[in-house]
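Aim 2 progress update. The chain analyzed this quarter is reproduced below.
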Amino acid sequence: MIKFDKQTETDYLKQKPISFSLPLPPIHYKTVAMKKILLFLLLAGLTATAQPWVAVAPMALGSERYNAVSFAIGNKGYVCTGQTTTATRETTFEYNPDANTWTQKSNFPAGKRRGSRGFTVGNKAYVLTGRDDTLPNGNIHNDMWEFDPATDTWTQKANYPGGNREDLIAFGIGNYGYAGFGLAGSRKLDFYKYDPSTDTWTRLADINYYWHHYESAVFVLNGKGYFATGSAYNGTTFNDYTSDHVFMFDPATETWTQKNNFTGGARRYTTAFTVNGKAYMGLGYTGQFPIDLWQYNEAADSWTQVGDFTGGNRFWTSTFTLGSKVYVGNGRNSNSLTLTTFYSWEPTLALPEYNADPFTVVSAQGSIVISSAQPAGYSAAVYALDGKAVLSDEFPNDATEHTISHALPHGIYLLHIANEGKRYSRKIVVP
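Predicted structure tokens:
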């Protein structure tokens, strides 16, 4: 059993087997007049999360990991370093969303690392510190390396000035990278700004001792950096506790501010990301394995649950945003599996929901008939309850009734119909 400094391997928990998507059955148009049971099972109060997560290509078997560094540059996503329950990784992989493929790139040159962190500035990524796989427990480091995806090369840059470290808080804002805190036998409070143009670090103000967190989620929203949840220290009990705290860094003043607590509750190893100008957070480990997803309202400093991650429970995931889609994958689950699977989510497809919809839907074995009094170019999609898309269609502009032929098994499904900036959703039953 490998030991991981703060905890042994058995403390790092468990999740669900790899799933595979089947090709969608063909869809056919025809105009019909049939009498069947009408289904008016409207979903009251659906939000943007009705748009489910879609399985994309998994990483190759043997490349599974959690506690890795992940980032996006241009229109590609990257995952490097990390660990399994028995191994530490040095490999780097690139995801191409156009081809839906993963390609192995140059290995992280400093060798195998876990607990490393990274940030991006411009078209370069920076990966720093972390713990290697030297027996018995690994050694921690202070080095930093720049990755240039254009040439697939790594270049060593100025070392992290705070000394050897793991589990830092790190993010990039504008022309600078920021990194600090973390662990090196004890909690470290120092925080630094990195300037790639001069390859220099500048020390900023230390964080309050009782604000120090590790095993946290990190995201950047509207030019400010955040860390949230994780493990923190209680000055009264003198013990660590699992936190629901949220802190914001303003680069204009170079100061930290505590925000309202995360409404989803205390947890560690949480997933966070920003997409389309919104921040989201969820998953992680609470003693249980939540799959919830919450959106942050910066103006109100509040969190609203917007549904669930439908790719199964997991914690310490790899995450990157490409255009209007976010990709979440890897991690470790409640079955002690380290995962290769990835899922994408596009919130822009999640239009406002309207319950008083103008459609009549008749679901029968082998067909779904959708009728509307107003002819228009509608689009429809049907999802299984596990979030997988099973049917999709675009209707002609001049038709008021359409039939989607299918071979779906008996069960309950979620139907979305979208047109003119609105989306109507309901459950349907296939008999």
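The radius of gyration is 24 Å. The CA atoms of residues 131 and 139 lie 5 Å apart. These observations will guide the mutagenesis experiments scheduled for the next reporting period.
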